[in-house]
# Entry
Amino acid sequence: MKNLASILVSIIFCLFFLESCKKESFITSKDARLGTSVDSLKFDTVFTVTGSITKSFKILNNNDQKILLSKIKLGGGITSPYKMNVNGVAAPELSNVEVAANDSIYVFVTVTVNPTTANLPFILSDSISINYNGLTRFVHLEAFGQNAIYVRNGIIPGNITFTNTLPYVILGGLQITTTGSLTINAGTKIYCHADAPILVDGKMVCNGTKSQPVIFAGNRLDDPYNAFPAAWPGIYFRATSKDNLLQFTLVKNAYQAVVVLNPSVNANPKLILKQSIIDNAYDVALFCSNTNVVAENCLFSNSGRNVHIEKGGTYSLTHCTIPAYSNNFVTHKKPAVFLSDADAENQTVALNATFRNCIIYGDAGFVDNDIQTNKVGGSFTVNVDRCLYRAATNPANITFTQSIKNIDPSFDSVDVARQFYNFRVTKNATAPGINKGVATVLIKDLDDNNRNVGLPDIGAYEKQ
# Structure
């Protein structure tokens, strides 16, 4: 009996000893269960003075053995606006950090920022990497870098006005509902994150002026990101939206800058653009499908597609300049203007479009015709009146009236290497579009200068 008791004690002791040894050894498998209490830390406080905010997360060892973290590293190192403290040790990088079995450690993160520093990005991003057993986990860090009004996943259900007191930074998107109306005052700047489209189901009115335009752009203003197309999704005027206006508005660096879908829900155009610039869109500057758009004194420039119209609709573009030149980011492989009465499924709607006093011109190389058409149905009316355009052969189903073909418009400056473009015409009296337009009701140009009393110039700008 004593021998049996001794054996049992020995067995229990051995089991306890083995379990203790197991817990004292490190788990080295890549199947080890390591977690973090969050995937990202977002510092949502709007900074109004020099700010220092601390948040924390836990690194969780969900194993019955301890684990060795070979490295915990702050991505930006000592230059990061963030500071890291791991279990009381403050450093941008730590090595060989042990976490006991079924235990956790705290990581404290502090961000210090002076929001009045104008050259800071609006969003300060970094990450903390955790290396273990040949694997890496990340916790992403995000804080606001400048004084601004930050809107995350915004919804506008009623009448709202954006003012120019501070810029707006849109995170996750902004939706104007069917009952919503957004008025944007002159001088207001709206910067959108890469995940932030503006969806208009109600009404949006931008009341910019020449000296104080309304600006939509990506929220990376630092070089070189401030020149990248596709920095944010774009503005989408959807089925129920109505009575929208962009006046003295600049929309730049979007993926699809301005998209207008479906017919007007009333007798007015769904969108009116006046003295506005849509520039450097990766896919398309102005995309229209079965809708009604009026554009006056506008510049649609240097985009994957400048003006793309499909599935018919009604359109009037007067004194618009539509140039397409390849650059380091966008190659001119599509026509500057494309018109179709059909969509991708060949569903057709009657098309009625007029281009009057417009320049439609791009560099040669990939595209022979900067106006192309695709007529599928029966009703297809396109008039090109007193325009200057480039085309190897005139596209079918267009009526051309006193227009100028394949003569360089004499833009003031096109320097692709330096990404500098001035689409005003030179002051040379021999420029082909000078005094070659037809008189319209428009007495101002895109610069808000007077049009000539006699025949106006072709394009968005009048030679002064």
Residues 2-24 form the longest helix (23 residues).
